Amino acid sequence: MSAEITVDASRENIVELRNVSVNYGSAIALNNATHSVISGEWLGVIGANGAGKTTLLRSIARLTSYSGEVFVDGRATSELSRKEFAQLVAYVPQKPELPPDMRAIDYAALGRMPHLGYFGAEGPNDREIAGNLLERLGLSLLAERHLATMSGGELQRLVLARALAQEAPVLLLDEPTSALDLGRRVEALELVDELRLERGLTVISAMHDLSLAAQFAGQLVLLDAGSIVATGTAAEVLEEKLLDFHFGTQVRILHTEDGELVVVPRRTKPKGPHA
Amino acid sequence: MSTNRTSSTASSSRNTARSRLKVSAPVSARIPLLVTGLVLIVVVLLSAAIGPADVSLSTVIQVLLSHVPLVHFHSAASNSAFNQAIVWDIRLPRVVLGGLVGAMLAAGGASYQGVFRNPLADPYLLGVAAGAGLGATIVIVANSGSTALLPVAAFIGGAGAVTLTYLVGARFGGRSSGASIVLAGIAIAAIFTAAQTFLQQQHAQDLQAVYSWILGSLSLANWSDVWLILPYLMVSTAVLLAHRRLLDVLRLGEEEASSLGLNPQRIRLIVVAAATLGTAAAVSVSGLIGFVGIIVPHVVRRTTNASYRVVMPVSIVAGAAFLILADLVARTIESPAEVPLGVITAFVGGPFFIFVLRSRRAHEGVL
After folding, report:
1. In CATH, what number is assigned to the domain containing residue B284?
2. Has residue B283 been placed in a domain?
3. Model pLDDT, residue A122
4. pTM assigned to the model
5. Interface touch B262/A132, C-beta < 8 Å
């Protein structure tokens, strides 16, 4: 899956976490996380609810205070200005704020903020970048529509367009497909993957659906109670006993004919008489 | 619809489909500004012409022209001392002051709605009105009769109350939450209003003076009021206009704005400080005129575009026109008596607001 990556000749670490811990009061949300992400890679962050997936993303995104160090492109993020950081890392939260009466093109153009001065307005070049992205994501006919009139799938792509307008090499996605139906989910992830290959992006995404994580993420990080408990490829991490233990349930892992892994949850209580 | 097209030669190396790409025009305030600007001019001329003493529109224009520097316009009408006194000395200061106050209240309202991401925010949200009311009441009850210190006291009270609100909100609410500042504003406003009401009850003989100040009036307007508040209003509106694009980014919420490289807390502080400075100055000469700060930005938002690039400049012009018109009604409807200006803004503004709410985009569920 990573064969076509163009920027990975150097294989350098673009994102590095060193002993990153986050506490919310007495609760430990992230415990001494250390991990490196190679440029151009798609890292899937998996784990049960509350395992620390979002916290991991937010500490990379500088949206939560943490101890330890995060490096992006070899520079400690704590030493970068807000603007410099926003030119390196684009973050899409799980539920982005979507002002209903904003036009799609203006929303996408907000992604150009990190490249503008404090009082500077976006120029024709910035609007062209935003317009090209709408076209790339199949939204050019909706450019002047208000967000209130767009569907969930269209909004998802629009949010991606805004993040890509930042032209940052690292893209953080928190549960990017949680609001989409099955078909739109695969579509959205395939789009992210195409863009990753086209632009040499590094993608770090929290993912609920383990089968989709297996299909799209080249590397996985499994979190439990704030600690990284397993890392590696899907084949290495998605192992029945490991998942049973860390998700507190029972799963079965199936292998499809074309070599994909499918993770199926199993019910733990016997079937009732009329089920 | 958009009119711009990217040049097809500039990016010839790209595929041809992209070179024909249509780039949507940026949000523009030009047309709404033109329309509201024309309305403002008409309203100014009408307001200068209408009143107990009849002055024709052409006389008004001639008197105005005679005051334009470098034009050296003179005519029989403009040379008349009577016309000069009515138009230039009596009506025009009131019209200009009304315009300035209306523009400021509308800009302040739009700003507060932007930084607190709350469509119900108005410029009095953080205690300007309560503070100014207390300041004015102290002066009125302390030396009945003299009102020279009244604007100063109202200004200090208004700006002081908001400063206190900000300190309390930031001290106890943490730096991330605009909500804690709004809650602090409610508490501070309640305390200041209680103090003001207590003072007012203790000095029942001044009740009339206090009450008429609180309801808002421009009846004592003169050119020195205009010069007094003009510097504050110019600084304030310049800062607010300069931040109109950043207010658009804040519409995404603090986290997303900060992941786009902004510092939302600092922007909020700057915008609130500027809006408060201007609002306190406006209130100090006009009293507490309600409703303008909510109704004007909302009507602009719903009839034109929700972007602050449009809402901010157009609200300033529309706010000026609205308040001049409201003041015209206030001083003519029961002439020679005057109806409090705050009564008119609410009485005229309320139904109009409801009409706009009903007619436009209600089906989209856009607040």
Report:
1. 1.10.3470.10
2. yes
3. 86
4. 0.86
5. no
CB-nearest to A82 from B251, B252, B262 is: B262
Rounded to two decimals, the ipTM of the complex is 0.86
Q: What is the mean pLDDT of residues B77-96?
A: 90
B1 contact A CB<8A: yes
- Residue to test with chain A: of B251, B260, B263, B312, most A Cβ within 10 A: B260
Is residue B359 very low, low, confident or very high in pLDDT (cuts 50, 70, 90)? low
**What total of structural domains would you count in chain B?**
1
Tell me the backbone φ, ψ of residue B122, rounded to 5 degrees: -130, 170
Instruction: Tell me the mean pLDDT in the region A213-229.
Output: 94
Domain membership of residue B133 (yes or no) is yes
Number of CB pairs, chain A paired with chain B, less than 8 A apart: 103
pLDDT digits (tens, 9 = 90+) for B204-255: 888 888 888 888 888 888 899 899 899 999 999 999 999 999 999 999 988 9
DSSP for residue A146: B
As a whole-number percent, the residues of chain A with pLDDT over 90 amount to 65
Tens of pLDDT, residues B157-198: 999 999 999 888 887 766 556 788 888 999 999 999 999 999
For A242-263, how does the pLDDT look when each residue is reduced to its tens digit (9 = 90+)?
888 898 888 888 888 887 888 9
Is residue A4 predicted with pLDDT exceeding 80?
no
Within 241-280 of B, beta carbons closer than 8 Å to A belong to 242, 245-246, 248-249, 251-253, 255-256, 258-263
What range defines the domain where residue B43 resides?
16-361
Residue B6 lies in a domain: no
Report yes or no on B329 lying in a domain. Answer: yes
User: How is chain A split into domains, by residue range?
Assistant: 1-73+169-249
Average pLDDT over residues B303-309: 87
Pick A1-73+169-249's CATH classification: 3.40.1000.10, 3.40.50.300, 3.40.630.30, 1.10.132.30: 3.40.50.300
